[in-house]
Design a protein that fits this description.
The chain has 16 helices and 17 strands. The protein is α/β, with parallel strands linked by helices. The protein is elongated, with a radius of gyration of 25 Å.
Length: about 450
């Protein structure tokens, strides 16, 4: 056997795994997976990103690389507070744009965590006051964009190796404001301290600088495949089709404590990909119908015109929902918590003060959504939120649809009225309206 055959086989196996995973991401991921890569200057990030990017593209992944902003910053002196402010602000703008693209992976060359490292260095150097550091940190750590980074890869190399790499292709060695034997240990110390203090805030992936660049890239690719699979293919609540038939024999069933006990008794948690095309299982969704002042939030789905210029899918519905993910204890409050989290994310809300009330269960095995069962909640919302949501357009992370919204009275939601305006009403919404659960 030739030397290196084992490595070639492992690479081919990883490529086949990546090819299969790309298909799963297209089916199930709601947005791209975001990986930040940060570490000591001259740790080999650029080479690492290039190797990972090339491998995954060859496996059919759509990869979008956000290059670090330091090189584009017009401010001359690196490492000071305004420099960090500029790079952080432009990075956040690029990240918010990137997660709305129709790609599978975003590689972020220095992101949110990197901004915190430089802030820590500047605080230790006395460049920023305690109050300034607190405000900047709180801004960067706003959950809405901190949570956009799904994993953070850190690479740590010692100062001597960094300086060697900096000058190995120069006849005359040089130092800079960052690339010098005094500043590099400060960076590494700040990196180590923040990894410890923010262990619960970031999903860290540590990468050793031992071995070749290809060795490091292969290790990181393996971690990316594992992380993205767990992220895009969670365990979700399901019940058997046989149980669903007994639970909801007539399409809708009004909520009672007895109904919840029956549902809860039959719920299991399984990987979404394992049940997606298995007719033996029905996936449980938590569905929210939002109401204000006797009006219902109506969502109209349209395909993006750029994708289908001659065809429009104007499907109207009165609910938004989500799969119910595995939790330590599944109960009604937990289900409503997951639903509210999805509504906040989808509708761009900082908060949603509401106490959802379960209305009942909908299942239409012979119509639409035969593989899904909906637990419907009435979600009362405040006037200020209703005014914000009325007549808005929402993007769905580049996955093919736009949604338009409005608040309408229930009598306006009759199929005939909507059809006359060029809309169709999806089946679950029809069942809920016929049951007169709203508003």
């Amino acid at each position: 056997m030739k030397r290196g055959d084992g490595s070639a086989r492992r690479l081919e196996m990883a490529k086949q795994d990546a090819i299969a995973l790309a298909k799963l991401l297209r089916r199930q991921a709601r947005r791209p997976f975001v990986l930040e890569i940060t570490g000591t200057p001259k740790a080999g990030k650029t080479t690492l990103i290039s190797l990972v990017d090339g491998f995954l593209r060859d496996a059919g992944w759509r990869v979008h690389v956000l290059k670090e902003r330091a090189g584009a910053c017009p401010l001359p002196m690196k490492g000071h507070f305004l420099f960090n402010t500029w790079t952080t602000g432009t990075m956040l703008a690029a990240l918010i744009d990137a997660v709305d693209r129709d790609v599978d992976l975003v590689i972020l060359d220095r992101g949110v965590f990197d901004a915190l490292i430089w802030l820590e260095i500047q605080k230790r150097q006395g460049q920023v006051s305690t109050a300034e550091a607190r405000v900047f940190r709180d801004f960067v750590m706003i959950e809405r964009w901190r949570a956009l980074t799904d994993a953070t890869c850190t690479i740590n190399v010692d100062a001597a190796l960094s300086m060697k790499r900096e000058n190995e292709h120069r006849l005359l060695p040089r130092t800079g404001s960052v690339m010098n034997p005094r500043a590099l240990p400060q960076f590494n110390a700040a990196l180590a301290a923040l990894k410890k203090s923010h262990a619960k805030d970031f999903n860290f992936v540590e990468l050793s600088n031992a071995g070749t660049a290809k060795d490091g890239a292969f290790k990181l690719i393996g971690r990316i495949l594992q992380l993205t699979r767990d992220w895009a293919d969670p365990e979700i609540a399901v019940i058997s089709r046989e149980s669903a038939m007994k639970l909801v024999p007539t399409r809708v069933r009004v909520w009672t404590s007895q109904l919840w006990r029956e549902l809860h008794r039959h719920v299991e948690f399984r990987k979404r990909s394992n049940v997606e095309n298995d007719e033996a299982w029905v996936q449980v969704l938590a569905c929210g119908a939002q109401v204000f002042d006797k009006e219902v939030f109506l969502s109209i789905r349209r395909r993006q015109r750029a994708q289908l210029p001659s065809e429009r899918d104007n499907s109207a519905r009165v609910w938004q929902g989500c799969h119910v993910h595995r939790t330590r204890q599944l109960n009604v409050p937990e289900m409503s918590r997951q639903l509210l989290a999805r509504l906040r994310a989808d509708l761009h809300l900082g908060e949603l003060v509401s106490n959802p009330r379960p209305l009942g269960i909908v299942w239409t095995p012979s119509e639409s959504e035969p593989g899904h069962l909906g637990v419907f909640f009435k979600v009362p919302i405040e006037e200020r939120v209703a005014k914000f949501l009325d007549e808005k357009e929402f993007r769905t992370n580049g996955r093919g649809y736009r949604r338009e919204s409005s608040f309408v009275a229930p009598h306006e939601l009759s199929p005939g009225n909507l059809l006359s305006k060029g809309y169709t009403v999806e089946q679950w919404s029809l069942e809920v309206l016929k049951a007169k659960w709203l508003p």
